[in-house]
TrEMBL record:
All residue ranges annotated as the IrrE N-terminal-like domain in the record: 44-101
Organism phylogeny: Bacteria, Bacillati, Bacillota, Bacilli, Lactobacillales
Classification via InterPro entries: IrrE_HExxH
Organism: Limosilactobacillus reuteri (Lactobacillus reuteri)
Pfam families: Peptidase_M78
Protein name (Swiss-Prot/TrEMBL): IrrE N-terminal-like domain-containing protein
Amino acid sequence: MIYPMNEARDYLLERAEEYHIAVKWAHLSPITPPGSSFEYRSVVMNLDWHRPSEIIFQLAHEISHVIHGDKGDVYYYHACYTGKESVEYKANVGAVKLLIPFYCQDTDIQCVNSANFMQAFHVPHYLSSVVSEEIKKYYAK
């Protein structure tokens, strides 16, 4: 299933608003990653990112940093995976948790596929078990 990225973006912007997080969009160098600040409850997204298909997961990731109160200005979206205790891993898990309700809404469990979710939102492969578990949790409600 193909997901309209504008709908996914709007969904995440609504979540950001619920958490009182400002999202700013800027034209930056294509290699400048997005960033976030818990102190200022804000996220800055790069409209010119060189891999536009990653922007939705990036937005969810940065929102997750602010929701979880990650201190300091965070701009390590592409930091190396350093284990389940790293701030980046936790932000990626938070991003999955933010996106699962959008992906699953109005969809029968038989039609949901974790691989499709990961492909649609460019979720790193090491999060496959997290995606599967979060989908199960969503439908267990």
